[in-house]
Design goal:
binds zinc ion; alpha+beta; five-stranded mixed beta barrel; single chain; three-stranded antiparallel sheet; 8 strands
Length: about 240
């Protein structure tokens, strides 16, 4: 048995027995793990209140490879994301980020790059809640890069034409040029501004706003397609009524 000290993001917590909690967390050192926090729901427990999703913590726990659930010893709070801002939307996108991490990272897959990327984007969302949607899209883009599924956004894979506007082909998970994608409906078309956004540059066309909702749907489909996981994010369903 060893004692592990690591930064972590709380993904989910459930009550266990009378006064304990079991938390799933994404740790920087060991990836996703489950920990039991004994007595954490007692009023006087030093662990009380720290095991909430969207908390960024430093955890110390006893680790034994033969155990499915490790034993939490100590927690220090580094940052409680969104605790100061009542904007529901930023909370929802923060939770969507955690849900994405939970779905794309395998158990025991430790990946400093994904962890740091998640923390960096949560910090951005917390600092600028009004841009949380754009930050979440940027996070998904960064994730495709880290996972090795970088978008081909410069040239059409069929005819090699340079992409300004494009069509997302859900059957192949690729962006193709407007000529090659004529048979696809308008719902799959991305404007010049959308493509410029994906490239991280500004569009010359000031009159075309970036369609963030469309980019978000496309990126979620893109990741689901290439990673072969269902990224049907429950957190974002909360937003469907108020148009993501
Ligand atoms: Zn083409």
């Amino acid at each position: 048995m060893s004692l592990i000290k690591t930064e972590a993001l709380i993904l989910r917590t459930i009550p266990f027995q009378e006064s304990s909690s079991i938390a799933r967390m994404f740790t920087r050192e060991q990836g996703k793990i489950a920990v039991i926090a004994k007595g954490a729901r007692r009023m006087k427990s030093a662990l009380r209140g720290f095991l909430e999703p969207l908390n960024y913590i430093e955890a110390i726990y006893y680790y034994k490879s033969t155990r499915d659930i490790q034993t939490l010893s100590k927690i220090d709070l580094i940052q409680a994301f969104f605790s100061d801002n009542p904007v529901i939307e930023s909370n929802i996108f923060g939770l969507a980020l955690l849900e994405t991490v939970d779905k794309v990272v395998h158990d025991h897959q430790h990946d400093h790059e994904i962890f740091d990327c998640a923390v960096q984007h949560l910090k951005l969302m917390d600092a600028k809640p009004e841009t949380c949607r754009v930050t979440f899209i940027r996070f998904l883009l960064a994730l495709t890069n880290i996972l090795g599924y970088l978008f081909e956004i410069n040239n059409c894979p069929r005819c090699r034409a340079s992409l300004s506007g494009a069509v997302y082909n859900p059957g192949t998970g690729q962006l193709i040029c407007l000529d090659c994608g004529q048979q696809f409906s308008a719902g799959h078309r991305l404007s010049e501004s959308d493509i410029a956004f994906l490239k991280g540059s500004e569009s010359d066309s000031q009159f075309q706003p970036v369609n963030h909702a469309k980019l978000l749907r496309m990126l979620i489909h893109y990741l689901s397609y290439h990673l072969d996981v269902s990224l049907n994010l429950k957190s974002l369903q909360l937003l469907t009524d108020i148009k993501i």
